[in-house]
Amino acid sequence: MKRILLILWVLTTLSAPMSAQVEDTDERREVLIETSMGNIRVVLYNETPMHRDNFLKLVGEGYYDGNLWHRVIGDFMIQTGDSTTRHAQPGASVGNFSPDYTIPAEIVFPKYFHKRGALAAAREGDSVNPERASSSAQFYIVVGKNYSELVLDRYQERINKATDGTVKLTDDIRDYYRKIGGTPWLDGQYTVFGEVVEGLDVAMKIDYVRTDDYSRPIDDVKIIRATIVK
Q1: pLDDT of residue 25
Q2: DSSP state at residue 128
Q3: Cα–Cα–Cα angle for 136, 13, 130, rounded to 5 degrees
């Protein structure tokens, strides 16, 4: 399978059965991700039901247990979801695997955007995936950083090109990116399906570990287990 990457600093069907369907109620489901550097608790959005249910299914099956955070980029994000990394040798190229199905995009912008702590689905690039369908298993947690108005203007120009001008950063979103941070250039192009509610400091610690030339942490950082807690 082609390596699943996010668009970086420059512009660069759900076919599996769902055995753990969840009714779309006001109550949100939560997952605890225990890592070798601490715990991260995430809440899942009901407005992205296919991503929510798929994530709960994989967590319930133990799919993420033992996975590495295989791609870590400072001031950007931490990524996981390649189950073959459980047995990856030091220095080996990782991040190439997800179960062989995709999830249709469920982009709920501007309600949900790439703020610091956002939980979002990785995917293959637009050239081979114009519908922006998500990886079945690989996800990332946004760390990002703060941006000035000038830089946000430049990112808005890039977003305009990528979305034919259909995605606009609102004043409130711009204010959030200025004061708290995130990754604005991904907005409207990747599905955000949850957010960190506890352990953002852990995600930030992982984000700043030493990495090799492929953005893999030199000292492995693992998901010990992921469990549904609500």
Answers
A1: 53
A2: T
A3: 90
